[in-house]
Amino acid sequence: MNNLVLDETILDQIGDALAGPGWTVIPNFLDTATVTELHTLAHARREQFNRAGVGREAGHQVRNDIRGDSVLWVEEDDSAMQSANARMAMLQQHLNRSLFLGLAELEWHFASYPAGAFYQRHLDQHRQQDTRVVTIVQYLNPQWQESDGGQLRIYLDDGSQVDVTPYGGTLVVFMSDRFEHEVLPAIRERVSLTGWYRRRAV
Ligand SMILES: O=C(O)CCC(=O)C(=O)O
Ligand SMILES: [Fe+2]
């Protein structure tokens, strides 16, 4: 996927899903070459990752019992992330045009969960002040097997749950304020790009 154009059908599929059930999973959203490229990039930058925390500002703390990942935020002017940033900008524009979501910006980071790490059940919006509208997760795990674990468990409105295996290239999109979810432990390192389209704070 080195050209920057996202297939209209995929854009429509994501838009329709967000307007309907509020979530979707798209296998092979990224092709193998792109998964490998981004996975290699994440590894090359591993010294720059920081342990992720919970809570905001003064309340921010690292809690292994809640989440065990390390993250590296993606900058807008990161030349190695130009295509990836362009794809996300295209999706943002599509969602604004088709659903009038008023998405003003994207914040996103690489995340690495070492073997055994997890992220307990949570909602991506922290309290009322949070402006996160849509959550996007792209998995960067070449040759992942279901038995490797690391599933994203999404708790749906009807009380059921769905487990998404983090195969390289799979995309998950959901409305940030609607679905609690958790990351189950894996038997090897699990890498992803996770982001949030935000509304401007009022
Ligand atoms: O990596 C995933 O599957 C989800 C990560 C997540 O829930 C988060 O970073 O808030
Ligand atoms: Fe989350």
Automatic annotation (TrEMBL):
Q: Identify a single GO molecular function assigned to this protein.
A: L-ascorbic acid binding
Q: Which residues form the Fe2OG dioxygenase domain?
A: 102-199
**Pfam (any one):** 2OG-FeII_Oxy_3
- Cross-referenced InterPro entries: HIF_prolyl_hydroxylases, Oxoglu/Fe-dep_dioxygenase_dom, Pro_4_hyd_alph, Pro_4_hyd_alph_FE2OG_OXY
One biological process term from GO is: cellular response to hypoxia
Q: Does the keyword Cell cycle apply?
A: no
Q: What name does UniProt use for this protein?
A: 2OG-Fe(II) oxygenase
